[in-house]
Design brief:
alpha/beta; 23 helices; 18 strands; globular
Length: 609
């Protein structure tokens, strides 16, 4: 078999790719590293299955997001044409929904159960239901629901989870996590499992490292015991598992392999990235305890560049020069394979940061150069430092009388027992005793209940002696973000409408964005699953990448996986960037380079010529 390279030229598949495509095992786990051609392997395996079945049976292909499911479906269409009609390509939630459309009445639901997809509708239902039961709603019901969602993803039962299930049943209605619960209930019926077994002969799961326990339960209920239901193949890479905060558990792939006695195939050759970038990703993989195969290097050598700005403005200026040079002159010829076009479009360039605030200076620089760009980040990636995140929770603390959610979030942020944060006096006392001097300084804000005074106090609360370079620089960056949000908030609402709760909601929605046009400015989490010809990773300082909160070995390993994901987004050009000094309210401070930069030394002295 052949696979296409970047020019559309057919090249030979590896023996391991052939093995994944041609295996007759009923259960297969493919550990597919970055750039290992997993999507092509998936498409060709589905093609083989459809050919073998000669018009009989269907294949169910499940993926993590709507976008990845659409891309997978398009790959099937290109590969098998009209035969792709025999492939059902869905997200796991989409599959659960389709199952309910067929059988919902069998578990007491309406024919078309109402799906609460908007957070506003879920908050309204929960608040009304709690009131009808004589219970008081949480001061931040949205945060409470998110905590409930995480428990449901991890199959953790709690009184809050049960209350929310009862609220949904009162309509009756479902939300997205509830789709998995209801579909799993359906699969307790033998007749439903038999029908699925007759419909689908094979199931393939892409991005399996992102499976949550709730999704895994649905999958295994559909498959039954070994040898019972459809044959299955899981494809994923535990090195790219960076969404454990949403309940993902990469160990489920290994549990699947053991339970179903699956054939395990490791695809560890990076066909996407040029030789130097592939070699660097292998260095990182070895730090994660995974040795990569020695293979013939990629035809394109690639290019890795290190940039050290005197400060963040200079770092952004050099990144601006880099972007301008790529758009004007293309990729350096020495980085390319023979005959490969050097031309690069703006959309093929990405700049990645650990947080949205780390991308602010480069956004300003690109705007000054009239270079079209767009940004995208997760709400949780907006702010960078501990102090900024604590300030957001103090805003939430003032949003209503009950303070359960901020109490829980504060406890998570500062590693304290939630029971020690039940009153404002307790919060202030814990802040003053905390090991982080920035948290100490925020103790005086706890008792401030006037929103305007609270915001006016922020800029003068933390002093030069309160922390080192990383902490003060992160605080400076986050304070600018919060102050900008406050300015925009003041312009968007009239004086009478301003409130703690409204401003907290405004902050939670800020900076998510949606990167679509021009140079892509993304947080690493938003970049997962994507690839670009040229990638820059900014803010490679201790405290930024890796994140300041990563203390334990497990947390530091998680940060290294995030760096691995960032590096492996690049196909031909990779730029690693840091500022030698970071701005604080008290002048420039010297930074400490990220330990990950030390890994580049294993590439050889000629890697950066």
């Amino acid at each position: 078999m052949m696979q296409s390279d970047d020019h559309g030229v057919e090249v030979s598949l590896s023996s391991l790719q052939h093995r994944a495509i041609d295996s007759d095992a009923r259960s297969i786990v493919v550990l597919a590293g970055a750039g290992s051609g997993k999507t092509e392997v998936l498409a060709r395996r589905v093609q083989r299955l459809l050919t073998m079945q000669q018009g009989l049976g269907r294949v169910l292909a499940l993926s993590y997001t709507n976008k990845s499911a659409e891309e997978l479906a398009e790959r099937f269409r290109k590969r098998v044409g009209a035969e792709s009609e025999r492939v059902t390509t869905e997200t796991i939630h989409g599959f659960a929904h389709s199952l309910l459309r067929q059988h919902s009445t069998r578990i007491g639901l309406p024919i078309e159960p109402e799906i609460l997809s908007r957070d506003e509708d879920r908050v309204e239902l929960f608040s009304q239901w709690l009131g009808s039961q004589g219970l008081e709603a949480a001061h931040d019901p949205l945060e409470q629901l998110r905590r409930i969602d995480l428990d449901r993803a991890r199959l953790i039962e709690s009184p809050e989870v049960e209350d929310w299930r009862r609220a949904l049943a009162s309509l009756p209605a479902l939300d997205y996590p509830g789709l998995l619960d209801a579909a799993s209930e359906l699969l307790t019926l033998k007749s439903v499992r038999r029908q699925l077994g007759r419909t689908y002969t094979h199931v393939v799961v892409d991005e399996a490292q992102n499976l949550t326990p709730a999704q895994y339960r649905l999958l295994t209920m559909m498959l039954g015991e070994a040898g019972e239901g459809p044959a299955a193949m899981l494809v994923g890479d535990d090195k790219q598992s960076i969404i454990s905060f949403a309940g993902a558990d990469p160990s489920l792939m290994h549990q699947f392999a053991q339970r179903y006695q699956a054939e395990v195939i490791a695809l560890d050759v990076n066909f996407r990235s040029a030789a130097l970038i592939s070699e660097f990703s292998s260095v990182i993989a070895s730090e994660l305890g995974q040795q990569q195969s020695h293979v013939q290097p990629h035809a394109a050598r690639g290019h890795i560049q290190l940039v050290c700005g005197e400060d963040e403005s200079d770092e952004a200026r050099q990144l601006g020069d880099w972007v301008s040079g790529l758009i004007l002159n293309g990729i350096p010829k020495a980085a390319l394979a023979n005959g490969e076009s050097p031309t690069v479009r703006a959309e093929e360039i990405a700049i990645l940061g650990r947080s949205a605030s780390a991308l602010r200076e480069i956004s300003k620089e690109l705007a000054a150069r009239n270079i079209i760009h767009s940004t995208s980040s997760d709400a949780g990636d907006w702010l960078e430092g501990l102090a900024g995140k604590v300030v957001l929770e103090l805003i939430a603390l003032n949003a209503a009388e009950r303070r359960v959610a901020p109490q829980w979030q504060l406890a998570r942020l500062i590693d304290e027992d939630p029971d020690s944060l039940k009153s404002r006096d307790q919060v202030a006392s814990v802040f003053r005793a905390h090991t982080n001097p920035l948290v100490n300084a925020l103790a005086d804000l706890v008792s401030e209940t006037n929103l305007l005074q609270f915001m006016l106090s922020l800029s003068s609360l933390i002093t030069e002696r309160d922390s080192g370079t990383s902490g003060l620089a992160s605080w400076s960056a986050d304070l600018t973000e919060i102050e900008n949000a406050w300015s925009e908030y003041l312009e968007s609402v009239d004086r009478e409408s301003r409130s703690w709760a409204d401003f907290h909601l405004f902050c939670s929605r800020r900076q998510r964005g949606s990167a679509t046009q021009g140079v892509q400015l993304l947080t690493v989490h938003k970049a997962q699953g994507r690839e670009f010809r040229a990638v820059a990773i900014v803010g490679l300082n201790e405290g930024q990448i890796p994140d300041f909160r990563a203390k334990s070995q497990k947390e530091r390993e998680s940060e290294l996986r995030i760096f691995y994901v960032a590096v492996t987004r690049a196909r031909r050009v990779l730029l690693l960037s840091r500022a030698l000094r970071r701005k604080t309210r008290y002048g420039q401070r010297v930074t400490t380079p990220s330990p990950y930069l030390e890994l580049t030394k294993q590439l050889g002295v000629d890697a950066f010529e």
